[in-house]
């Protein structure tokens, strides 16, 4: 069962996607599939959800994301350029109206890049460009951060859809 905040964020985004007749692709990392799960929990999700991938490692990003969008030089995970690339790549790979990219450090410790736990970047890409958002929860609880990161990504999508 999804936490209420996550279920509500997925339902709001799903309703907007259905209302607009648009589609979504997801490439998430530290959320571990929660963004996709929240979108798929909505009855009728097949009308808008084209697919998603958990891009948790460099190996996964090479296998699933490369090819559609050039990799920015010097790019590292859990950064604004990384999630922008994820959002653009998954949208193009699946020919979706929208793409979501997410990457962060859930905790209990930071990531190898020196980011603290509770740090995440989210991106939403569409025909008019990419919008990004940074969130720092100041929390080192892994599960709470995973949910907070997924909610933030879905809320960013809903904002773009409005």
How would you describe what is shown here?
There is one protein chain. By secondary structure, the protein is α/β, with parallel strands linked by helices. It has one domain: Maf protein (Alpha-Beta Complex). It has helices at residues 4-20, 34-40, 58-64, 80-93, 142-161; strands at 24-28, 49-54, 98-105, 119-126, 129-136. Strands 2-1-3-4-5 form a five-stranded mixed β-sheet. Helix 2 links the parallel strand 1 (24-28) and strand 2 (49-54). Helix 1 (4-20) crosses helix 2. The two termini are 27 Å apart.
Feature tags:
Maf protein, 162 residues, alpha/beta, 22% strand
Write the layout of secondary structure elements.
Layout: H1 4-20, E1 24-28, H2 34-40, E2 49-54, H3 58-64, H4 80-93, E3 98-105, E4 119-126, E5 129-136, H5 142-161
Parallel strand pairs: 1-2, 1-3
Antiparallel strand pairs: 3-4, 4-5
């Amino acid at each position: 069962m999804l936490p209420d905040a996550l279920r509500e964020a997925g339902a709001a985004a799903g309703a907007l996607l259905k209302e607009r007749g648009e589609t979504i692709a997801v490439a998430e990392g530290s959320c571990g599939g929660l963004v996709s799960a929240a979108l798929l929990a909505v009855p009728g999700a097949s009308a808008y959800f084209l697919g998603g991938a958990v891009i948790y490692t460099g190996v996964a990003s090479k296998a699933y994301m490369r090819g559609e969008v050039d990799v920015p030089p010097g790019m590292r995970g859990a950064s604004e350029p990384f999630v922008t690339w994820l959002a653009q790549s998954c949208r193009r790979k699946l020919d979706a109206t929208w793409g979501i990219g997410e990457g962060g450090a859930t905790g209990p410790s930071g990531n190898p890049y020196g980011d603290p736990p509770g740090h995440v970047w989210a991106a939403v890409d569409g025909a008019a460009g990419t919008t990004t958002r940074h969130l720092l929860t100041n929390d080192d609880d892994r599960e709470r951060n995973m949910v907070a990161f997924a909610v933030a990504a879905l809320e960013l999508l809903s904002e773009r859809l409005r």
